[in-house]
Amino acid sequence: MNEVLKRLGLQEVNSGAAFDGWYDTTGRVVESVNPTTGEVLASVRLASVDDYEDIIQRSQDLFRRWRMLPAPKRGEIIREMGEALREHKADLGALVTMEVGKLKSEGLGEVQESIDVADFAVGLSRQLYGLTIHSERAAHRMYEQWHPLGIVGCITAFNFPNAVWAWNAMLAGVCGDVVLWKPSLKAPLTAIATHMICEKVLQKHGWGGVFSLIIGDDADVGEALINDRRVPLISATGSTRMGRHVGATVAKRLGRSLLELGGNNCVIVHKDADLELALRGVAFGAMGTAGQRCTSTRRLMLHEDIADQFLQRLTRAYESVPIGDPLVEGSLVGPLIDEDAVRMYESAIKAAQEQGAELLVGGSRVDGPGYFVRPTLMKAPMDAEIVREETFAPILYVSTYRDLSEAIAIQNSVDQGLSSAIFTDSFRASEQFLSHKGSDCGIANVNIGTSGAEIGGAFGGEKDTGGGRESGSDSWKAYMRRQTCTLNWGEDLPLAQGVKFVI
Ligand code: UN1
To answer: What are phi and psi for residue 302, nearest 5 degrees?
Structure first.
């Protein structure tokens, strides 16, 4: 077995369930394949609904104790997790690259994102504060406080197999929740390695199980999780199709869901943009991570005055971008995750052509092992059905505009609402883009591409993106329940709104 996997404690066949130690799982065996080579890295024996049930019961008990540990003390444990992630950054980053095909620097960047959010959560553990509100009644005091919720179910996608769990777990952990992680079956090894690194810290302090792991099929374990009333919050990252099902199921039992779903992110390059900057921003957004970020740039609107010139430069960049093994320095485009993803890439290009798009660069698979495809640039009518969908592949649809309001309207015309960007040196254009009548997305950037957000901001989007916010700012509130408390220190019992009720 590969040295990196060995160093991270992975085995040829790994268990798919953990709560303060591993379960002897009995489900089918799923292989984790390196998308660069098509080789099997290691396997996982999936967990069952019985394993799930056991973890939930133990989590309920553990939660009752964990919530009583003062938040700053929980923060101290999270701080040590950040340290442990730092220690294993090189190996864990390499594993991300091997398992999902991200560039080496992106694999490392992903682990850094987890470290950053751990640091953020440590500070937060001393800032989980509520408001004090003036009461309308004499000798009364009113305030809000925040309590832990309970068990948080965290469902993650393959494309951020480490950081998205950390966004949720580090915050939920300091908030006093326990977290059960159900990772993607396409990236189980990163989940297992991440779990082991953090679990070791928890166990050292006698808190093994605060973060638990269940790797299983959606049809049994996944359904059990989202239907479970003992799990007050389900945080799910993935496709809009998945999120619609999770959201509806959780809503039916009046649970809470935090959804971070598909994007169809647009960059507008205005007539006065710094074209060099725009070129780099669009290239990273559209080709980076082989177009497999929810924040990847999928649509490009060019002002007519600069369109020809910009498109020429972009075409050259697309033609010369190095595609290859993401572990090798210099590669800029790695593989797609699997054969299905390649098929979806191919069928999207075909559909786009049928719907009036013109292929400018790319459009085909790269021969050889692995799931490599050529980054693809297409001139396309922005109202074509395929352009309105999220295809998780490096396909960029381009069109032109004359009037900025028209470009913004097109940018907003899709169902998804995650990320958006404008490149401009005009104060007016930038402010229009950021105004109430501007971008309708959860993320709106100026002179920065659509992907690569920092953890300090709240991350998420509107409409079909699901409305959830994770990571920075006040996203922690999603992991707690709010309580409004009114205290009467007087000798009378006045009723609010002047109501009289004298007995
Ligand atoms: C995702 O693709 O699900 O903003 C998350 C970014 C990253 C997170 C992406 N920080 O591109």
So the answer is: -110, 135
pLDDT in tens, 34-86: 999 999 999 999 999 999 999 999 999 999 999 999 999 999 999 999 999 99
Residues 411 and 474 in one domain: no
List the catalytic residues.
260, 294
Which tokens sit at 96? 């991300």
Same domain, 297 and 189: no
CA of 295, closest atom in ligand 1: 11
- Cβ 170 vs Cβ 118: under 8 Å: yes
Phi, psi (deg, nearest 5) at residue 496: -65, 160
Which SS3 state, helix, strand or coil, does residue 291 take? Answer: helix
Pocket of ligand 1 (CB under 6 A): 113, 159-160, 164, 237, 293-295, 451-453
**419 CA closest ligand 1 atom index:** 4
CATH number, position 79: 3.40.605.10
Cα 394 to Cα 405: distance, rounded to the nearest angstrom = 27
- In a domain? residue 26: yes
Q: How many domains does the chain have?
A: 2
Tokens of 221: 């374990």
Those residues whose C-beta lies under 8 Å from the C-beta of residue 156, and which sit 6 or more positions away, are 164, 165, 181, 182, 183, 184, 191, 237, 238
The pTM for the full model equals 0.97
Check whether residue 242 and residue 288 sit in a common domain. Answer: no
**∠ CA 185-186-191, rounded to 5°:** 70
Same structural domain for residues 373 and 471? no
